[in-house]
């Protein structure tokens, strides 16, 4: 493959990276459908996907580290995040999801928890991730479930049902 042809097609390295990110975002969307009414299950499925595809997480991490605060946000990533926060807001408005957190916060917490125990985490540096994967997945799902609980009038926490 000729480097000049690559840049002729994509323009520059930022546009090439955007195309790669858009492809990877599309893959995640296809393989891990977003379910705002069941964020714990989504977090568990995302955990599984990223554990099986660590290159996806590395690419996303590189994007956040190197391109954060720039105007080079991949279009597919921006659209995906916007669609997810809008879906969470609709689920909250419809009473299918607790409203204790803003949609953006709830999405950020869900994504962070799904990523917390993956191989790029400093917590797993000396760990047998495969041995711990099932327990950690369960912890991720439970933590996200707790974030989606609503407090009743007495301040007691109860599952928010539809």
UniProtKB/TrEMBL annotation:
Residues covered by the HTH-type transcriptional repressor Sco4008 C-terminal domain: 38-146
Name of this protein: AcrR family transcriptional regulator
Organism of origin: Kitasatospora kifunensis
Molecular function GO labels: DNA binding
SUPFAM superfamilies according to UniProt: Homeodomain-like, Tetracyclin repressor-like, C-terminal domain
Keyword DNA-binding: yes
Domain of life: Bacteria
Keywords assigned by UniProt, alphabetized: DNA-binding
């Amino acid at each position: 493959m000729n480097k000049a042809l690559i840049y002729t097609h994509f323009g520059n390295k930022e546009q090439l990276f955007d195309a790669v990110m858009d492809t990877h975002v599309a893959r995640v969307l296809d393989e891990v459908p977003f379910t705002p009414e069941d964020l714990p299950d989504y977090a568990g499925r995302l955990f599984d996907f990223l554990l099986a595809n660590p290159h996806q997480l590395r690419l996303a991490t590189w994007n956040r580290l190197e391109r954060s605060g720039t105007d080079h946000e991949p279009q597919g990533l921006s659209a995906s995040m916007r669609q997810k926060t809008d879906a969470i807001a609709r689920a909250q408005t419809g009473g299918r999801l607790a409203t204790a957190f803003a949609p953006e916060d709830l999405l950020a917490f869900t994504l962070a928890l799904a990523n917390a125990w993956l191989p790029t985490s400093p917590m797993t540096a000396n760990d047998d991730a495969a041995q711990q994967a099932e327990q950690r997945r369960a912890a991720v799902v439970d933590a996200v479930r707790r974030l989606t609980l609503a407090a009743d009038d007495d301040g007691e926490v109860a599952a928010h049902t539809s």
